[in-house]
Protein: Acetyl-coenzyme A synthetase
Amino acid sequence: MTSEIVHVPSKWRAKHPHGAHLNGFLEYRTLYEESIRSPDTFWAKQARELLSFTQDFHTTRIGSFQNGDNAWFLGGQLNASFCCVDRHAIQDPDRVAIIYEPDDPQDGSQSITYAELLRHVSRLAGCLRARGVRKGDIVTIYMPMIPEAVFALLACARIGAVHSVVFAGFSAGALQDRIVDAKSKVVITTDEGRRGGKVIHTKSVVDDAVKDCSCVSTILTFRQTGGDVPWTVGRDLWWDEEVKKYPAYISPEPMQSEDPLFLLYTSGSTGKPKGVLHSTAGYLLGAAVTGKYVFDIHQKDRFFCSGDIGWITGHTYTVYAPLVLGCTTIIFEGTPAYPSFKRYWEVVAKCAATHFYTAPTALRLLKSKIKKEEIECFDMRQLRILGSVGEPIAPEIWKWFHNFFGSNQTTLTDTYWQTETGSHVVASLAGVTPMKPGCASLPCLGIDLAIIDPVSGEELTGNLVVGVLAIKQPWPSMARTIKDNHDRYMDTYFNIYKGYYFTGDGAYRDHDGYVWIRGRVDDVINVSGHRISTSEIESALLEHPAVAETAIIGVPDNLTGEAINAVVSLKERENPIDIKDELILHIRRTIAPFAAPKAVFIVTDLPKTRSGKIVRRILRKALIGEREFGDISTVRELSIYWDFFRILTSI
Ligand code: WT7
Structure:
């Protein structure tokens, strides 16, 4: 691993004459140590500074990892939409809250001020209330990346409803599971969406999804394209006809700090996706503190996070962090490849973005398509801070990103975190921490990291250690539970290493104490920064009538980081060519296109132990072309493994 250090460029300081919120690396060290030594004092001070409580809290924190009952800022009352909208609208109504950059650049962008945002959010909140949504109810949102999706999140928060956003690339079946689990009365969607020049049929997917859901009484549809869509009178309402009936201001519902703000489904290593539940005050504080210190957000900034609102990155860094800190967030509807591979540069230059936060998978694609001369015409001088998220960023991609977007004059922060952590947990602080290309760097303020030896379960102290990554002390934005399954929450995160939160990732601490993330140690695959469990795809494949047994394996991939490979044995002999395509289509339809296997291998049987457990280790090694299989003495029949190996090498 390279130890090369990139210091904050001197030109960065010229771009940012008032300097970062922290005055240098030593100040981070001091504040970090204080935050670990006296976490309650640190977090209480941050909460009072960055959030607006309408009633102050009396107790900073209670609970423990062992009991899984952590709670923060007790006695406090606040409202997330007030913190993200009203207080800025009062102070500076004409400040731009959202810049919308549509899929097709010909359509022209749109700006929404904080005063306008307050009106949009209030009207929609009034409409939701009129449709029977009450405090604590869960509203499902299935929308493309448009400002109305932001209004929807904040309108839920305003009346104390819990939002559950489902990524608009999920299939009707996956959406149905989530609507039913949440028992949503109201689903918010659009007639259609646009992405990369293609139409996405959001309303018809919602219609398919709710066919058997008796709980849904309202589908509120924003008219985005004007396309023809299926309609059920009584249940379906047009946003433009309804929302205008409600007042331009309704007062925000006072919420307890621990009241849930949202639910977001994510894949675990086993079973169905889990509904991760986040609290109001703790979550919002995590967004605010990391937005302020990791990304050095100031109110004049224009923050461009390309993360879709359907994932946690979109929640925390497209919506909550920029708005809670009162800057401008850029909502980009499109993709990096449409109408050309120059699109991200166009958006950054046109919106004069100060920040650009994206995923290595997009960068790998762009690196293979773009030559420096093609992008030299873009004025990127406003850009100060780059960020990467979702998977490890290889040093050469880091350097390319720094050069091609930042002309080596910006900072670049690799941010490690998870749906469950709510906000960054390992990241360099922009303008403060010396950077190492490819390295997530150092723990964020208030995050007490540990590297654990997976064999002994003991914490490995000091530098030059490798093990699994854990967190030792509670932090405010940690998920509070998995909906309807607190046991699963305890078993996944807290019962593996007692007294620690277990991340599921491997990590290495180098000689400077910098942390390098090495990827998942469980059965979770990371494809283009999307997290998907092997067992979820396996269960879906087993539902196909032709499939007898299957194992899903993640293999390294140059473009997507990891790629999904399916090894399948069939019940009867079918034409393996036809069946491969059919199985891929089956996953696209039942889960989502991003979960579809890149390759399917048909075998007569899968290698198993004598007790019948599939030996994935052998499959993985065979798929990546390794000839050394290690100890295979427990594998039932070696002949099966040879059969498998022969098939693979012949493909
Ligand atoms: C998993 C969490 C949190 C934002 C997007 C994904 C991987 C995330 C990094 C990074 C190496 C990373 C981990 C983690 N991951 N960021 N900077 N370096 N790995 O959220 O879907 O909850 O996935 O993504 O494996 O556990 P998520």
Observations:
- The chain has a mean pLDDT of 93.
